[in-house]
Structure formats: C-alpha cells, structure tokens
Amino acid sequence: MKIPRALTIAGSDSGGGAGLQADLKTFTAFNVFGTVAVTSITAQNTKEVTAIHDVPVETIEAQLEAVLTDIGTDSVKTGMLSNKDIIELVTDKIIKYDLEPVVDPVMVTKRGDLLLEPSAIRTYKTELIPKSLIVTPNIREAELLTDMDIDTMEDAKEAAKDIYELGAEHVVIKSLKKNNRVIDLFYSNKEFTEYTSKPFKYHKHGTGCTYSAAITANLAKGKSVEDSINTAKSFIDDAIENGLNIGSGEHPVNHMVWLK
Length: 260
What we know:
Blueprint: E1 5-13, H1 19-29, E2 33-44, E3 49-54, H2 57-70, E4 75-78, H3 84-96, E5 102-103, H4 120-128, E6 134-135, H5 139-146, H6 153-165, E7 170-178, E8 181-188, E9 191-197, H7 207-220, H8 225-241
Parallel strand pairs: 1-2, 1-4, 4-5, 5-6, 6-7
Antiparallel strand pairs: 2-3, 7-8, 8-9
Helix pairs in contact: 1-7, 2-3, 3-4, 5-6, 7-8
C-alpha cells in the first residue's frame, strides 16, 4: 500500500501550536507521512515570540536533499521563510524537483510580530509565488504582498487578483469578515468562491499553519485543489471549535480533533 507523503518547509514553534509542529500533527490526522526541513527555530508560546534563530541555508539545503532524494514527497508546503536567501533556496529546490507547493506566506503573527526581513517580501513575489500551486495569506500578509489596504470584500478580491497575477495558480485569502461571518476567499480560473464559517473568539493559535497543512495533506492523497480546500476548511473549523485550553495567551487549535 502506497503511503501518502507530505513535506513541510517551515519554522519550529517551541509551543507546539503552530509551525512545523502543527504541520506534522495535521499530516498525521489525515494519515499522511510527514517530513520536514526546518528553516528557523523560534522561542514562542501562546503569548509571544521571544527569539528567532534562522537555520543556515546550507543546513536547510541538506535537509531538503536528504528527504527528496530518498523519501520523496507527494505534496509540499512552505511556512516561515524569514529571509531572501532561504526563499531563493527553497524556490530552487521546488524547480529542481518539479514540486507544486502550497505557499503559506508566514510573515506576521496575530500579535503583529514580523517573522521575516522586509527585503524578503519582494523575493516572495518574484521567486516563490510564481512557482506556487496555492498561496494562502491572511489579510495582513495579503496586504504586504500587494502593497494595498484590505478593508472590504472588494479590496480582498483585488488583492487576490494581484497575487494570482504574480503567477500563483490559486489564491485563498483567509479570515475576512462579512455579515458576522468569517470568509475564506478562493480565487481560481478568474472566478471567486467564498467559504464561510461562524466567527470564533478563542483557540486561534496555529490556524494558518494547520489550514495550509490540511490542504497539503489532502493534495498528497490525490484530492483536487477544490476538494482539498473544502476538506481543510471543515477540519480547521472543527479544530478551532474544539480548541485546547493550553497556555495563558491565544490557545492553540486541536489538531487531533478528527482522531477522536
């Protein structure tokens, strides 16, 4: 029996709620074998990020070569890529191994902590996004990628078009608000689809990582982009609604919710 494989290229969250820890938990929840290339080591918990150490580019490259030349992968996602050199390396490997990544442009935390060098934003736009299958920014990340303010649904649609024009095949802008509902705006083939859910006040740490990891896991299992996004949306809503009362800050989502 062939075991689906998914690779995450991401930073480490010492609190276990986001980053590569969230990705691997999510892959497991979907019965997908997860591999990893660690890009940055962060000291963080449910309240704050207190330290960031970027892994040397040579070590990231060695991790990717070790995984891709032996285990291989059926899908890949990127998370925290904090500087220009890391983004360029990851893009080179995506081209070399003919991968179609889910790009979660992890640029800023919910608390406003910037997780990449400002100069790296341009490299995202010119190097990685043009090679992406799906890009999944939140509102703030979409603003950084498009140099525009997103205040309305029409603004979000324009931003999605701009990111699409950078070369992404599909775009999902997450966590928009409309009529007391939360909207994930999906743009593909010049058409929009709105995925709606009720708003949640708590258990939001790791939502972006977990959502993009769920998409990646389902792509690894051979599902279409649309089916993968649909399934991931149901999963992340359940993971938030059944979140874990851990820590004294923003509680993490429950990655094990579908394993019960």
